[in-house]
Amino acid sequence: MDIVTEQPALDEVRALLDGRRVVALTGAGISTDSGIPDYRGPGSAPRQPMTYQEFVASPQAQQRYWARAHIGWRHMTGAEPNAGHHALVALEQAGMVSAVITQNVDGLHEAAGQRELVALHGRIADVVCLGCGARSPRAELHERLDVLNPGYGDGAYAIAPDGDAVLEETSTFRVAPCLRCGGILKPDVVFFGESVPKPRVERCRALVDAADAVLVVGSSLQVMSGLRFVRQAAKAGKPVVIVNRGATRGDDLATLKLDAGCAETLVPLAASVC
User: Fold this and answer.
1) Which domains are assigned to the chain?
2) E-strand spans in the chain?
3) Of 107, 184, 196, 206, which sits with the fewest C-beta atoms within 10 Å of its C-beta?
């Protein structure tokens, strides 16, 4: 497809970022071109994701989560990095982007080849036991769940953000326990209502401190986990460029805000720099 951003807007972005060490903060909007829905973009259906408190509260909640996620995982594993992800890699290789902080858990930045990357909310490809802390690959759990639930979820389902599937009846789904201690398994991601690990936050703060500017791509900045880094940069007097469809919670902190798509901005920006 042809990806074009109006030249005056692109010139403004480049004028603010050229010659500076830029930390990019990405959200769900950068992955929509890979077929992964976002939470708050234009046209997104209202959705209440499961909170951490709900997940740990009952076996029924865990059953509901894993039944939906088991189906959604098939979709997530088929997603591939899009032009926006590859453009950020090109900007890193050109020396403009020093690091990427992503709020996404889909692993697409890693798949695209991004080298300096912090997955702020974790990775959905990993699983952690809430009992003993053991970590294991999601692919292994998926195979175990397939054995426990043969044929479960065959057919077409609507896919929600973060690899969830739209599914109401989950009472027959069998959940797999931790192989080491029999404890509760959870995807190694930060749920709503759960805190980002402090060392991860401090690493991100250090990256923003070392940068000269922040570029926000595809995030509405509705959650503090990402917004705090924009506030940090703005407080230090560093340029903040926001590229997002629709309003964001950080618009009043932006040096420049583009109501535009991620790939349609990043691709020509990378072409002009590389």
Assistant:
1) 1-36+81-121+195-274 (3.40.50.1220), 44-78+125-189 (3.30.1600)
2) 22-26, 97-102, 117-119, 122-129, 135-137, 159-160, 164-165, 185-189, 213-217, 240-243, 256-258
3) 206
